[in-house]
Specification:
heterodimer, A: alpha+beta, four-stranded antiparallel beta sheet, 4 strands, 51% helix, B: mainly alpha, 17 helices, 71% helix
């Protein structure tokens, strides 16, 4: 597989390049940008991030653990405090809520580390420092015989520079 | 008009250059500032070790006032920690674009303030090495903390807030650390490479990152409201006159946001001047923060009035005595400092000229910081020193040890912030650039 990199100056040009590449039949695209841009996300159409599922799992785990821990502890050494029942749900809601947020937040960040960083750690040969400054990069992965066509589409989409990164 | 004289960034690259310039080698004045603050922290550490060696005797704490400057300062710093989450999470969910310039500074202050706040209950317990008794962990004695106690709720609330704030702060920082990694040429490049966790700004990374920020904002918004509510319940669930009131949770939350925004202004105004960031921290940002100050000052002022009204309306002699003592007893100066600083001093901000006048905003913010510290001092001192039985009334004067540790906490906050200034962009690069692209896009007619 070869990679063709096109460098663009604006997010609008990048969105337009993605649409042109998709229309031309190129499906394996990667885009680098200095800022998050909804238009790029919409054009790539990769659906919602899986992270939301892990946030939900984390929150449910946290709140369940919070209530379970407090109720279990209350029965492990039963002491009547303030005339309240051992399993005093209103009083335990505070810590249940806090652990809901804490474990939910931890799961969210850990899933970002896994899906955003660990799974994405390779295949960035086309990256260049300008992509954290003011440049946008559009990378097309294609077979060797499609390189010329990919370069052509990128040039017509307003790229300031087009080059083959890996053959 | 201030807006005319403030420069406007022309390109995203200029934004990178302007903001990352703050990371360049420090001036002698900066080094002197860090050394001065670090010296004060060192003196505070000596005071703390002295107290740890001798016990709580060197403090002014004695029956009936067993909560003093330490708990006052704890509540104060928890309050300061609220601005970062308000600006980063709540204003993010409300899509308030002006937050982009100030959110990084505010988030960093949140992290430093909550770290300092978390130290004060440990300093207050005296035998600091026994702090782990509060933490639920399996032990051979079969003992567990009392989960029905607000003090244990507080432990969970503060630690959750601390960890979630650190995570939120760090996640927001990742793209900017990558930008710094790509620019800086000295030893810090290696540090940024590690901290950026391999960030490349790919569409996959942005997709997951945006969702993470959204979810952390959603989680932090109820969290920030809960944290100071839980702190207020430390007081409100007791039977102390002046504390036992349902108004405390919203009153504390509004006060926390009030003081937090004020601290953001106090710290960012000198940074703006020293590093030439006038193009990014603009008068409209101060205008908006001024409006938030007005809103929260009004809530706080209303709460002060309502406390006195309820004391009178309840016809409860203990409650009435407590509030009379608050206004005219031996701590009357603290009460009137609180009212003048928190209710009177923000009033000129009803005028836009004052809100967009940076010097005016800075002076007002300092008054508010002082007033909000005194608010907590007044609540704690007047509540505990005059409870029900006149024979058990008491007097409290903070000792030198307590005041030294108080001053050291401010010095520690400034030391951490000054060091942070040189290690990471104090203004969120990618957010400012995002706003720049959006404004340019709107100007061109793209939507």
């Amino acid at each position: 597989m070869a990679q063709v990199l096109g460098i663009l100056k604006t997010p609008e040009d990048t969105v337009s390049a993605i649409h042109s590449l998709k229309t031309a039949g190129f499906a394996e695209l990667e885009v680098y940008s200095p800022v998050p841009y909804h238009g790029i996300e919409d054009a790539l159409d990769r659906g919602p991030s899986i992270i939301r599922l892990f946030t939900l799992i984390g929150c449910l785990t946290g709140v369940s653990f919070g209530y379970f821990m407090q109720i279990w502890v209350a029965y492990d050494w039963p002491l009547v405090i303030g005339g309240k029942p051992f399993a005093s749900i209103p009083a335990y809601t505070i810590i249940g809520f806090e652990l809901n947020i804490l474990i939910g937040g931890l799961f969210t960040v850990l899933s970002l580390m896994f899906f955003g960083m660990f799974q994405n750690r390779k295949g960035h040969d086309a990256y260049q420092p300008g992509f954290s400054g003011d440049q946008f990069g559009c990378v097309v992965s294609c077979h060797g015989d499609q390189v010329a066509r990919a370069q052509d589409v990128l040039k017509r989409s307003g790229c300031t520079e087009v080059r083959v990164v890996e053959s | 008009m201030a807006a005319i004289t403030e420069p406007v960034p022309q390109t995203p690259d200029q934004i990178n250059d302007d903001i990352l310039r703050v990371l360049e080698p420090p001036t002698p004045l900066y080094v002197l500032g860090v050394l001065f603050c670090a010296t004060l922290v060192g003196i505070g550490l000596v005071a703390f070790l002295y107290q740890t060696y001798w016990g709580m005797g060197p403090t002014g704490l004695t029956h009936p006032v067993m909560w003093g400057v330490y708990i006052t300062t704890f509540v104060f710093w928890v309050g300061i920690a609220h601005a970062g989450t308000l600006i980063s999470a709540i204003l993010y969910l409300f899509r308030a674009k002006w937050r982009n310039a100030v959110n990084r500074g505010a988030e960093s202050m949140t992290v430093f303030a909550v770290l300092i706040a978390a130290m004060f209950p440990l300093i207050h317990i005296g035998r600091v090495y026994k702090f782990y008794f509060m933490v639920p962990y399996p032990n051979q004695r079969g003992l567990w903390p009392n989960f029905k106690s607000p003090l244990v709720w507080d432990l969970f609330a503060i630690n959750t807030y601390m960890l979630v704030s650190i995570m939120f702060f760090f996640v927001g920082l990742i793209p900017d650390l990558a930008a710094a990694r790509d620019r800086v040429r000295d030893w810090r490049r290696h540090l940024y490479r590690v901290l950026a966790l391999g960030w490349r700004g790919s569409s996959e990374q942005w997709r997951h990152w945006s969702r993470t920020v959204l979810h952390l904002s959603g989680l932090s918004t109820p969290l920030v409201l809960s944290v100071h509510s839980v702190v207020s319940w430390d007081f409100a669930t007791s039977l102390v006159p002046g504390w036992h009131t349902t108004i405390f949770a919203p009153y504390f939350v509004a006060g926390a946001i009030f003081s937090g925004i004020a601290m953001v202004i106090t710290v960012l105004v000198p940074v703006r001047k020293a590093f030439g960031l006038e193009a990014y921290l603009r008068s409209e940002h101060f205008d908006n923060m001024g409006k938030l100050i007005l809103l929260t000052s009004s809530i706080v002022g209303y709460s002060y009035g309502m406390e006195y009204f309820m004391a009178w309306y309840s016809a409860n002699p203990y409650e009435q005595m407590s509030f009379w003592f608050r206004g005219f007893g031996y701590h009357w100066t603290s009460t009137w400092i609180m009212i003048i600083c928190n209710v009177i001093s923000p009033l000129p901000l009803w005028f836009k000229w004052c809100r967009t006048n940076i010097a005016w905003m800075w002076v007002t913010s300092i008054f508010i910081n002082i007033g909000m510290w005194f608010e907590r001092y007044v609540i704690i001192m007047t509540g505990l020193s005059h409870e029900y039985d006149p024979a058990a009334w008491g007097y409290y004067v903070p000792s030198v040890v307590e005041l030294t540790i108080l001053v050291a906490s401010f010095a520690l906050f400034l030391t951490m912030f000054l060091i942070f200034l040189r290690l990471a962009p104090v203004i969120a690069l990618q957010e400012v650039k995002e706003l720049w692209y959006e404004e340019r896009s709107h100007a061109k007619g793209h939507h």
